[in-house]
Amino acid sequence: MRADARRNYDRILAAAGAAIAQHGAEASLEEIARHAGVGSATLHRHFPSRQALLEAVFKDRVEALCTKAHDLAAEPEAGAALIIWLHAVGAHAVTNKGLGASLMPGTDTGDPTFGDTCHTMILNAGSELLARAHHAHAVRPDVTITQLLKLVGAIALATELDSDGAAETERLLTLVIDGVCPPGTGRGRSFDTPSVGE
Description:
Layout: H1 3-23, H2 29-36, H3 40-46, H4 50-72, H5 78-95, H6 99-102, H7 116-135, H8 145-159, H9 165-180
Helix pairs in contact: 1-2, 1-4, 4-5, 4-7, 5-7, 5-8, 5-9, 8-9
């Protein structure tokens, strides 16, 4: 990519990130181009579809979540590792409008413009942690990663307009933790409310 083209790409990506944070995944592409200081044709040359733009905006954030999942996979407490990661996903989703909806594929609120690549990355990362938690009997055997991500996405959607959305997301996610514990166990030590920064 030529230097001027790279600068345009970076400006579009920065403008898109700011617009999506404020208005969500349906942010105006024309406004994004205007704030980036480029024409609509230049925006579409770099990002031929809204999906392509969303993929680029969210990719780094999704990769960060995948890296965190990989790091947590080495933790001895498989149940705690899964819950820490779900809290991290919730924190990302509530502060990145549109990511919450994107976590709920196959539902009426699922965002079809959020591409398969990011979905697959998140699902694969979470599946590894869930498999470890299942093996350790720290999570009910019928719980799936898709179900967990739908819960996180729904909570993020419900709280993203709150003044303390991140804190409320964490509180609500903590409330649903009992539902994924094995029957009759209640909240075990593995499911003590974790800190996202842990």
